[in-house]
Amino acid sequence: MGPEAVAASHQPAPRWVWSSRDSTGRARLRRRAVTLPAVLLGFVLFLALLVPALVVGALVDLSGRRRWATVRVALYAVWWAGLESMGVIVAGALWLRFAPGGRLHSEASFRAHSGLQRWWATNLVRGARRLLGLRFRLEDASPLQRGGPLVVLARHGSQGDALLVAAMLASSGLRPRFILKRQLLWDPCLDLVGHRIPNYFVDRDTVDNREEVRNVGRLGEGLGPDEAVVVFPEGTRFSPAKLERAVGILGDTDPGRVPQVRGLRRVLPIRTAGILEILGSAPTPDLVFLNHVGVSDFRSLRDLWRNVPFASPLRFTAERFDRGQVPPNGEQAALVRWLDDRWLEFDAWVVANSV
Predict the structure, then answer these.
(1) What is the pLDDT of residues 139-160, one digit of tens each?
(2) SS (H, E, C) 131-182
(3) What pTM value is reported for the model?
(4) Diameter of the chain measured on Cα atoms
(5) What span, in angstroms and rounded, lies between the C-alpha atoms of 57 and 294?
């Protein structure tokens, strides 16, 4: 081991912040006292009711001439609950392995928990493929397969985006650091494992977002060559009303961007504060713009049921920019303009390829 490697091995690990108010010991305990028993008991209950549920579901599907949508959703619910339960159990085993020696936030623990996250996400996607008829493809994986470190700016088109992105990154050998909404902490696997690897659960409703932005930026610290920070820079899923509201807000906060973002039709303007903070703390990663079309947002279980099996495949595309192609952090106005220009191209692809 050379002197540079020795020095790097003795550098203190970053002190991670997972959320501004939901990651205290008391908050975790109160939440997990509900979610952990619920998911384990829920899996047992789902198994006990599976046969009658399938019988009733088959009758519903036959009477409505549906393509076994109710049966498919019932089977996937059991699959999901089983993966959640197994994830909780394995997370407990990893805690027993690493916590007693004070190594829960060591590199070995990060890698073990990243492996658990990869297993959980890829199997949820695998189940969706087989049971719900989900189909998706990345047209050219080379922008991801070239390795990291990366900052991935991904379109937020549906509630399953993070799972699909995690699966695609895993297939390219990359470990993601996600920025996710704080409400997802009520998923016990995301809560347990998400607090043992670098992620940030953002409060999108805070009035003063300066602390949130600072904490998001810390995800760029210490990125390894097999890691990627994943940002959904729109902040929420698209709708025409949200687009109009977002442009109106920019008119008050950053009017210079309005002429550019008024050209957007199918995506929301980028929220630049967090991206700029990440790029400031991670000066070397390349940027990847990960886009997709082919799925509508499902706001409820009924929406999902009505669209299963999925009629159209999801089509993903990735475009990579070397850091040298990106304006430097010190030229913030030029960097924001560059991001807006790329996002207009991003939007044009969505418009051209949407059915």
Answers:
(1) 888 999 888 899 999 998 777 7
(2) HHCCCEEECCCHHHHCCCCEEEEECCCCCCHHHHHHHHHHHCCCEEEEEEEH
(3) 0.87
(4) 72
(5) 27
